[in-house]
Design a protein that fits this description.
heterodimer, A: 83 residues, mainly alpha, 3 helices, 0% strand, B: mainly alpha, 71% helix
Chain lengths: 83, 110
């Protein structure tokens, strides 16, 4: 029961981030929306691992967190002074 | 322990939803960045720690993920805000003060 409530809240959050990603007037808005939705997706992966009883999902969440951190820093550097 | 973990997970999911709502609703890049960083850092921390409380054998790895999020999320948001300011995104017209010009002289020149 509480899993369903948490999944509905997290899914609605990801949809709101996607709407801001589509509507955002500048590139920085879209980068912020991507960064936020990446953090939300990391928490969602850990929660799905708890629901499906799969320990391997924690490794997936850890690697996803590392990769999105590197991606956010790379996008920020590109916006700041180009490649 | 399972009940405690479930309550912590639902509170964390609520914080994640509120942070995403702030990303959608607030008027400015910097306001959105504030909502999308602080709120989702706390929400992801609570959700991951709550899963670790529900399954006590998983607690060390969930603690590792939570600490990693807690360390890297402020760094990436700082880089994004700095990039937004450097690329010339204007402040919202209701913003009161902007002191970023005070520190322009002390910046490192490459």
């Amino acid at each position: 029961m509480t899993d369903v409530v948490a999944l509905i809240l997290i899914g609605a959050g990801i949809v709101l981030c996607l709407l801001r990603m589509i509507r955002g007037p500048s590139t920085a808005d879209r980068a912020v929306a991507v960064d936020t939705s990446a953090t939300v997706t990391t928490a969602l992966l850990v929660l799905l691992g708890a629901i499906f009883k799969q320990y391997i999902y924690l490794d997936v969440a850890l690697v996803y967190a590392v990769l999105t951190f590197i991606g956010a820093v790379a996008i920020a550097r590109y916006l700041e002074r180009g490649l | 322990m399972t009940l405690t973990g479930s309550i912590v997970v639902v509170v964390g999911a609520l914080f994640l939803f509120l942070g995403s709502l702030g990303v959608y609703r607030l008027p400015d890049v910097y306001n959105r960045l504030q909502a999308g960083t602080k709120c989702t850092t706390l929400g992801a921390f609570l959700t991951v720690i709550g899963v670790g409380l529900m399954n006590p054998g998983w607690f060390p790895k969930t603690l590792l993920i939570a600490l990693f999020i807690l360390l890297t999320n402020p760094i990436s948001s700082h880089a994004l805000g700095r990039a937004g300011q450097k690329s010339g995104v204007p402040l919202w017209e209701g913003s009161v003060v902007d002191r970023s010009d005070d520190f322009r002289d002390t910046e490192r020149t490459e």
